[in-house]
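[agent] plan:
  1. take the single chain provided in the ticket
  2. run structure prediction with default settings
  3. attach C-alpha cells to the ticket
  4. add a short note for the reviewer (M.T.)
[agent] executing step 1
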Amino acid sequence: MSSPKRAAKPANRSVTKRAGKIDARRTAAPAAAKPAGNGASADAKRLAAALERSIADGKLDLVSADALQALIAAACRVYSARSEAGEQFTPVPKHSISATDVMLTASGLLRAADLAVFELGMWQSWTGR
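[agent] step 2 finished; step 3 output follows
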C-alpha cells in the first residue's frame, strides 16, 4: 500500500542532477522565528512549572479536567501544525517523561480520537512518521 502523502513529492526536498544521477537531499526547514521571552512561550513555561509543582505537592486538581483537556488538545494541534509545516522536533525532550507517562497519554489520545494502536501502526507505515 502507499499513501497519497507518500506519493507526493515532499516540499522540503531539493533535487539536483549530478553526474547523471539524481541527488535528493533534505534541505533545512526555514528557521522558525524565535519567540520573545515574554508572551505565550513564557506563559506556557510558567504553567508547565506550576503543573510540575502541583504534582510534587500532590495537588493533582490544580487545573480542572476540562481545562487540562483544552490544554492538551491545543498543544496537539500546534505540534501537528508545526510538524506538517516541516519542523522536526519531538513533542517533549527525550527522556524528560517516563515511559508510563507516554503510554498513558498516548492511550488516552488514541481513545479520545476513537483510534486503535493498529491504526496508528498502519498510519506510521504509510507516512513514514
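[agent] step 4 note for reviewer: Residues 16 and 23 are 5 Å apart (CA to CA).
[agent] ticket updated
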